[in-house]
Write a structure and sequence with these properties.
The chain has 124 residues and is an alpha/beta fold. It is 49% helix and 23% strand. The protein has a five-stranded parallel beta sheet, sandwiched between helices. Helix 2 runs parallel beside helix 3. The longest helix has 20 residues.
Length: 124
């Protein structure tokens, strides 16, 4: 399973990587800025992209655009403290597939969702 994580919170990333790799091996790459996002998307095809709503000077909108420019079509998870319903709706309209609020329990749910969807996709 290949995952690209886009966030600017190193502690959050570390915890997420631990959760993701606890039960199954994952190929995980991390991007802290939009140039790294584009570089990783050029190098690899991902099953999942996990992004915060806002990372430094850019937003999930730019991440979604960068993903759509590639031939692969990973599922895009928004994992963020953002709670503005209009903004979340906008991200869904642009191409986000799932949204989870940041937090320990939510992270656990998101990781279970990723594993379940990946398992289902592998069977098809």
């Amino acid at each position: 399973m290949r995952i690209l994580i886009i966030d600017d919170d190193a502690e959050e990333i570390e915890l997420l990587v631990r959760f993701l790799t606890r039960h199954s091996p994952c190929d995980i790459d991390i991007a802290f800025d939009l140039e790294e996002v584009k570089m990783w998307l050029e190098k690899k095809d991902y099953d999942f992209v996990i992004t915060d709503a806002f990372v430094g000077e850019f937003s999930a909108t730019e991440v979604i655009k960068a993903v759509k420019e590639r031939k692969s079509s990973p599922l895009i998870y928004l994992f963020s403290e953002e709670s503005n319903p209009e903004l979340i709706k906008k991200f869904f309209e642009e191409g986000v597939n799932l949204y989870f609020r940041k937090g320990f329990k939510e992270m656990e749910s998101m990781v279970i969702s990723i594993r379940n969807i990946y398992t289902k996709l592998k069977k098809e």
